[in-house]
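All the exercises in this workshop are built on plain-text protein records. A record pairs a protein's sequence with a compact description of its fold. Read left to right, the C-alpha cells trace the chain's path through space. Once this layout is familiar, the rest of the handout is easier to follow. Here is such a record, shown just as it appears in the course material:
>
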Amino acid sequence: MDDADTILNLKDLNVYYGTFRAVRDINLDILRNRITAIIGPSGCGKSTVLRAINRMNDLVEGTRTEGEITFHGRNIYNPEVDAVLLRKQIGMVFQKPNPFPRSISENITWGAKINGYKGNMEELVEESLKGAALWDEVKDKLQEHALQLSGGQQQRLCIARAIAIKPEIILMDEPASALDPIATLKIEDLMKTLSSDFTIIIVTHNMQQASRISDYTAFLMTDENRSGHLVEYDKTSEIFIRPKNKKTEDYISGRFG
C-alpha cells in the first residue's frame, strides 16, 4: 500500500440473499483519494460488495449482512447509523444513467435541497456541472429536460448530482458500460480528475478500463458454492503485470471469465 490513509475498512464481510451467501469473508482497505477497481467474472459479487458499502443492499428484501465496514472508525452496520445520512457521505452512480425527469438544473438542486443545502443554488449547479466536466456543454440550457441529453451527458449529470451533496466516497457500478467509446473515455478522464477530491470505488468488467484508471484493483471470483470471495488485492500495476495468484493471471489474460 502507499502512504495514503485508509478511509474505509471491510472486515470479514458476508452478504446473504435469503439463505444464499453472495459474498464471503471480504477484507479490504480502501485508501482515501484513490480509485479502486473491483473486477471479476459475472456473478462473483462485485456489485453486492459495492452496494454493501453504502447499505443499498438494505433495500433488497431478505438481505442479511455480517462482518464490519468501518467508515470514520465506526461500523456502518451499527444499528445507530442512519443509512440515509450515510448515503450522503457515500454517493452512488449506477450502470444505466438515471437522471430525474426534470430540468438539468433541478437534477442538481433536488438532492441538495433534500439534504439540507442552504447555500447559493446557482453557484452549486455551476460548481457541480464543472466538476463533472459538463458545464460548457449545458450552461445555456440548464432549464431544458435532462432526458434530452446524450447517454454520456446523462451519466456525467448523474455524477454531477452525486458530487453536489459533497460526499467523501463515490461508488460507481459499471458507469460506462452503456456508453460508446468516446463517452467512456470522458467518464474515465473525469474519474481521474475527481479522485483528487473524492475516493472512488468502481465495479467494472472491462480489464482495460481497470488498468487505465485505477490505483488499486481487487479481483473477486466464486467458490464451489457460488459465493464471491477476494482472490487478490494490490496496486493495479502489480495485479496486471505481476499478479501473485495464478487465478488472477488467468482471469486478466482472458483464460476464463
